[in-house]
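Hello again, I could really use a second opinion on something today. I've been puzzling over a protein and I'd love to understand its fold better. I'm sending you its amino acid sequence along with the C-alpha coordinates. It would help a lot if you went through both lines with me. I've dropped the whole record in just underneath, so have a look.
***
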Amino acid sequence: MRIAVIYWSGTGNTESMAALIAEGARTTGAQVDVLPVSQCDLQVLETYDRFAFGCSSQGDEELEDTEFLPFFEQIEGQLSSRDIALFGAYGWGDGLWMRDWQERVVALQANLFESGLAIQEDSLPEDEQCKSFGERFAKFNG
Protein backbone atom coordinates (compact mmCIF):
# COMPACT_ATOMS: atom_id res chain seq x y z
CA MET A 1 0.00 0.00 0.00
CA ARG A 2 1.21 3.48 -0.88
CA ILE A 3 0.18 6.43 1.27
CA ALA A 4 0.77 10.10 0.48
CA VAL A 5 0.93 12.49 3.42
CA ILE A 6 0.34 15.84 1.73
CA TYR A 7 0.56 18.96 3.88
CA TRP A 8 0.81 22.73 4.07
CA SER A 9 2.40 24.25 7.14
CA GLY A 10 2.84 27.88 8.06
CA THR A 11 4.83 27.53 11.28
CA GLY A 12 6.16 23.97 11.00
CA ASN A 13 3.66 22.37 13.38
CA THR A 14 1.61 20.66 10.67
CA GLU A 15 4.83 19.61 8.93
CA SER A 16 5.95 17.94 12.19
CA MET A 17 2.58 16.21 12.45
CA ALA A 18 2.97 14.95 8.85
CA ALA A 19 6.35 13.39 9.61
CA LEU A 20 5.04 11.67 12.74
CA ILE A 21 1.90 10.39 11.00
CA ALA A 22 4.10 8.94 8.25
CA GLU A 23 6.37 7.34 10.84
CA GLY A 24 3.38 5.65 12.45
CA ALA A 25 2.00 4.43 9.11
CA ARG A 26 5.37 2.95 8.17
CA THR A 27 5.28 0.68 11.24
CA THR A 28 2.59 -1.32 9.41
CA GLY A 29 4.81 -1.89 6.37
CA ALA A 30 3.09 0.75 4.26
CA GLN A 31 5.12 2.75 1.76
CA VAL A 32 4.68 6.38 2.80
CA ASP A 33 5.81 9.61 1.19
CA VAL A 34 5.57 12.99 2.91
CA LEU A 35 4.96 15.73 0.35
CA PRO A 36 4.57 19.48 0.74
CA VAL A 37 1.48 20.49 -1.22
CA SER A 38 3.67 22.77 -3.36
CA GLN A 39 5.22 19.62 -4.88
CA CYS A 40 1.91 17.97 -5.77
CA ASP A 41 -0.27 17.93 -8.85
CA LEU A 42 -3.08 15.78 -10.26
CA GLN A 43 -0.71 12.88 -10.94
CA VAL A 44 -0.44 12.25 -7.23
CA LEU A 45 -3.87 10.59 -7.47
CA GLU A 46 -2.46 7.94 -9.81
CA THR A 47 0.54 7.16 -7.63
CA TYR A 48 -0.98 6.52 -4.18
CA ASP A 49 -3.71 4.30 -2.72
CA ARG A 50 -4.71 6.57 0.15
CA PHE A 51 -4.11 10.11 1.30
CA ALA A 52 -3.55 11.95 4.56
CA PHE A 53 -4.08 15.67 3.98
CA GLY A 54 -2.73 18.18 6.49
CA CYS A 55 -3.37 21.89 6.68
CA SER A 56 -3.25 24.23 9.61
CA SER A 57 -6.12 26.58 10.34
CA GLN A 58 -5.78 30.03 8.80
CA GLY A 59 -7.65 33.31 9.18
CA ASP A 60 -11.20 32.73 10.36
CA GLU A 61 -10.65 28.97 10.80
CA GLU A 62 -10.23 28.14 7.13
CA LEU A 63 -7.89 26.08 4.96
CA GLU A 64 -4.85 27.97 3.67
CA ASP A 65 -6.05 29.58 0.45
CA THR A 66 -3.00 30.28 -1.72
CA GLU A 67 -1.48 26.78 -2.02
CA PHE A 68 -3.45 24.14 -0.18
CA LEU A 69 -7.04 25.05 -1.00
CA PRO A 70 -6.41 25.47 -4.77
CA PHE A 71 -4.73 22.05 -4.85
CA PHE A 72 -7.50 20.41 -2.84
CA GLU A 73 -10.18 21.98 -5.05
CA GLN A 74 -8.34 20.66 -8.11
CA ILE A 75 -8.39 17.04 -6.90
CA GLU A 76 -11.52 16.83 -4.75
CA GLY A 77 -13.72 15.69 -7.63
CA GLN A 78 -11.59 12.55 -7.83
CA LEU A 79 -11.61 11.60 -4.14
CA SER A 80 -14.86 9.62 -4.17
CA SER A 81 -14.40 6.16 -2.60
CA ARG A 82 -10.79 6.92 -1.63
CA ASP A 83 -9.48 6.54 1.92
CA ILE A 84 -8.77 10.02 3.29
CA ALA A 85 -7.35 11.20 6.63
CA LEU A 86 -7.27 14.86 7.68
CA PHE A 87 -4.96 16.54 10.17
CA GLY A 88 -3.61 19.91 11.17
CA ALA A 89 -2.66 22.32 13.90
CA TYR A 90 -4.56 25.39 15.01
CA GLY A 91 -3.75 28.30 17.26
CA TRP A 92 -7.13 29.52 18.44
CA GLY A 93 -10.80 28.76 17.98
CA ASP A 94 -12.43 25.42 18.50
CA GLY A 95 -11.47 23.46 15.38
CA LEU A 96 -14.26 24.66 13.10
CA TRP A 97 -11.96 24.46 10.06
CA MET A 98 -11.51 20.72 10.68
CA ARG A 99 -15.24 20.08 11.10
CA ASP A 100 -15.97 22.00 7.88
CA TRP A 101 -13.25 20.06 6.08
CA GLN A 102 -14.63 16.75 7.34
CA GLU A 103 -18.09 17.62 6.04
CA ARG A 104 -16.59 18.55 2.68
CA VAL A 105 -14.79 15.19 2.40
CA VAL A 106 -17.90 13.23 3.41
CA ALA A 107 -19.92 15.14 0.79
CA LEU A 108 -17.39 13.95 -1.81
CA GLN A 109 -18.30 10.38 -0.83
CA ALA A 110 -14.72 9.66 0.19
CA ASN A 111 -13.97 7.24 3.03
CA LEU A 112 -13.12 9.64 5.84
CA PHE A 113 -10.84 8.10 8.45
CA GLU A 114 -12.03 8.84 11.97
CA SER A 115 -12.81 12.52 12.46
CA GLY A 116 -9.46 14.04 11.63
CA LEU A 117 -6.64 14.95 13.97
CA ALA A 118 -6.65 18.57 15.08
CA ILE A 119 -4.07 19.59 17.67
CA GLN A 120 -3.96 23.01 19.26
CA GLU A 121 -0.50 24.49 18.88
CA ASP A 122 -0.20 25.05 22.63
CA SER A 123 -0.34 21.28 23.16
CA LEU A 124 2.20 20.30 20.48
CA PRO A 125 4.12 18.07 20.16
CA GLU A 126 1.79 15.12 20.44
CA ASP A 127 4.20 12.56 19.03
CA GLU A 128 2.45 9.38 20.13
CA GLN A 129 -0.98 10.73 19.16
CA CYS A 130 0.26 11.49 15.63
CA LYS A 131 2.13 8.19 15.25
CA SER A 132 -0.90 6.23 16.44
CA PHE A 133 -3.13 8.16 14.02
CA GLY A 134 -0.82 7.19 11.14
CA GLU A 135 -0.68 3.55 12.19
CA ARG A 136 -4.47 3.33 12.48
CA PHE A 137 -4.92 5.04 9.11
CA ALA A 138 -2.58 2.56 7.41
CA LYS A 139 -4.72 -0.28 8.84
CA PHE A 140 -8.02 1.47 8.01
CA ASN A 141 -10.41 -0.54 5.91
CA GLY A 142 -12.72 2.19 4.62
